[in-house]
Amino acid sequence: MLxxxxxxxxxxxxxxxxxxxxxxGLRWYNSxxxxxxxxxxxxxx
Length: 45
Fold this sequence. Notes:
Blueprint: H1 2-37, H2 39-42
């Protein structure tokens, strides 16, 4: 029982970490794309 609990906890943690890293990566990619390619939409010269 303890092994199953630890395994499920590790699985949940790894899934959350994957989602978090993907979310942060997408946000960084979008912000870099906006900063590099679309300065007019951001209102900066």
